[in-house]
Amino acid sequence: MTFTDSAREIVASAVREFGSGLAVLSSFQREDVIVTDLVLSAAPGTRVLTLDTGRLPVATLQMIEAVERRYSIQVERMEPDPREVASMVALYGPDLFRESVPNRMLCCELRKSRPLARGLSGLAAYFTGLRRAQAKSRASIEIFDRTGPSVKISPLADWKTEDVLRYTREQGLPEHALYARGYTSIGCDPCTRPVVAGEDERAGRWWWETDAVKECGLHFSADGRAERTVDVLLREVLAHAASAPPASLSQ
After folding, report:
1. Does a structural domain hold residue 84?
2. Of 107, 188, 191, 216, which is the active-site residue?
3. What does pTM read for this prediction?
4. With DSSP H G I counted as helix, E B as strand and the rest as coil, what are the percentages for the chain, rounded to 5?
5. At 203, is the pLDDT very low, low, confident or very high (cuts 50, 70, 90)?
6. CA geometry: angle at 197 spanning 191 and 202, to 5°?
7. Host domain of residue 153
8. DSSP state of 210
9. What is the residue-averaged pLDDT of the chain?
10. From CA 210, how far away is CA 224, in angstroms rounded?
11. What is the rounded CA–CA span in Å between residue 31 and residue 188?
12. Rounded Cα–Cα distance for residues 201 and 227 (Å)
């Protein structure tokens, strides 16, 4: 069985088990576009969701439009609470993530994790493009991770980079423009840079941090000290947001 056949069988198995309770979670990197292609081929009505943090690169917004055109779909955007973002910026500044790992995790919590939890509420399962070879922190990911409220399915878990490139090329899939500039993992605009020779695929994420795991909280649980600090910061932001007037997402 080829790597593509295996991924298709995983998708088919998920569709049989979860049916209309499925969605694709996409950041529109190569892996996510492949998963979208596989899933929509098997189950054309499956929802495609993305996190619009308010700080995405322009090229990511262009990719969303390209995928919508190719598959004749409407991507559903999950956005952070404007009041929470405004309170975070008021308390800690727009680029707080450069100050410390807990600050960065707070930003990810408000712009990613909390909107994702709201967006996935009620879903039985969702697909991701995670691969074990992407980073050490992902080496043990499960194909069917049943530990959360919604089952997280990673059909490409065993794929290598060359498998991803081959499928993308053979199927003529749209590609994120930042790959041509040396990016191998693409997140928010101020938090991502190109990688250099010898670095792993996620080295361009939060590159100013030393000895920190390159995960934002969506797919990784931080160590206790960082989590406790984040919890304190989050409580401060939510308390501020509760007493603040309505705000628009312009931060």
Report:
1. yes
2. 216
3. 0.86
4. 50, 10, 40
5. confident
6. 35
7. 3-243
8. S
9. 90
10. 18
11. 17
12. 25
Query: Quick check: is 251 in a domain?
Result: no
- Three-state DSSP at 202 gives coil
Give residue-wise pLDDT tens across range 22-68.
999 999 999 999 999 999 999 999 999 999 999 999 999 999 999 99
Four-residue CA torsion sign, 131, 132, 136, 139: positive
Structure tokens at 228: 């406790």
CATH number (domain holding residue 110): 3.40.50.620
Question: Is 191 marked active-site?
Answer: no
Cβ count near 81 (within 10 Å): 17
Residue 50's closest CA among 153, 120, 109?
120
CB of 126 closer than 8 Å to CB of 149: no
In total, how many domains does the chain have? 1
Chain Cα centroid distance, residue 6: 23
Instruction: Using DSSP bridges, classify how beta strands 144-145 and 76-78 pair: parallel, antiparallel or unpaired.
Output: unpaired
- Non-local (6+) Cβ contacts of 111 within 8 A are 51, 53, 54, 55, 80, 85, 188
Q: In what order do the strands lie in the sheet with 144-145?
A: 76-78, 47-51, 22-25, 125-127, 151-153, 144-145
* Count of CA atoms in the C-beta half-sphere (13 A) of 124: 10
